[in-house]
Design a protein that fits this description.
287 residues, D-Maltodextrin-Binding Protein, domain 2, 7-stranded mixed β-sheet, two-stranded antiparallel sheet, 12 helices
């Protein structure tokens, strides 16, 4: 059966009437729905006008239902109970679903994975699955719970909250940085020729990108490893290469980069599930 929603009364009116039917009181119905007595009375009158039947008898002794009112109340009780049961089932089902996270492979490896054991120590019952991607994945269409994205926090239709600020630097292998003969004008930058964000950062810092060399490795996750091997320059956030700098496999190159990037926790426009909220709280503790 296909419902013709244009012929159905408003859900607000049906809820108001069902509350009156359950409580036999306009005042009690108003309190249960956190609205005014007048609002309940208006919705019930609108419902009666829509159906063309009297549903409620009002008298100094109180409120009672007409025969038609009893029939509608019985149908609504069954219908709303079925809705409540369906919602509860989905909530229980969702509670056991893994938290699905997307972010870049580099951010996941550098920031999340070194500490992920502490999350599972605190929340052993919560599973987390990762979908690494350097592109902005459609959270709603893909059924994802959250993303960690670099940007300015303006993604239409999604919620975002700042996770951390991090400086952008140019990095290279010690073999290049420690060699006084290195000609930085010919060392290639490890990003594609058409990389817009990287070029915008360099231009912002006063570097003419029309004269730089670039090297596209085909996979962004390989650029840090290639940088460690002395292949070229890596333009990256400090948080993403902290481990390599601490190990001494990458060093800050003598190229003036003055730029700050922001990482945001991005979620669909609805309230996160409890498991997702727990993971978000843990992520914020890392910043």
């Amino acid at each position: 059966m296909v419902l013709d929603w244009t012929k159905l009364p408003s859900l607000t009116a049906l809820k108001a009437f069902e509350a009156v039917a359950q409580s036999k009181s306009f005042s009690e119905a108003a309190r249960s729905l956190n609205v005014t007595h007048a609002a309940i009375a208006q919705q019930v009158r609108a419902l009666e006008e829509h159906i063309g039947l009297k549903l409620v008898d009002r008298s100094p002794r109180g409120v009672s239902l007409t025969l038609e009112g009893h029939e509608l109340a019985r149908a609504l009780t069954v219908g709303f109970a079925a809705i409540a049961e369906g919602v509860e089932f989905l909530q229980e089902k969702g509670a056991n679903r893994p938290v699905r996270v997307t972010t870049t492979a580099l951010f996941a490896e550098a920031v999340i994975f070194p500490e992920i054991a502490s999350f599972w120590s605190e929340h052993p019952q919560i599973e987390v699955s990762f979908m690494p991607s350097d592109a902005a994945v459609d959270l709603v269409a893909e059924g994802l719970d959250l993303a960690v994205r670099a940007g300015r926090g303006n993604w239409p239709g999604l919620r975002s909250r700042l996770l951390l600020d991090t400086a952008i630097r140019a990095y290279a292998s010690p073999s290049l940085v420690d060699d006084p003969t290195t000609d930085w004008n010919i060392v290639p930058w490890l990003f594609p020729e058409d990389a817009l964000w990287e070029r915008a950062v360099l231009e912002h810092c006063g570097i003419d990108t029309s004269h730089i060399r670039t090297l596209d490795l085909g996979n962004p996750s390989l650029k840090v490893r290639a940088g460690e091997e002395g292949v070229g320059l890596v333009l990256e956030a400090e948080c993403d290469v902290r481990a390599q700098v601490q190990r001494g496999t990458l060093k800050v190159a003598p190229i003036p980069i003055d730029y700050t990037n922001q990482f945001f926790i991005v979620t669909p426009p609805w309230k996160p599930r409890p498991a997702t909220a727990a993971f978000i709280k843990w992520l914020e503790g890392l910043a």
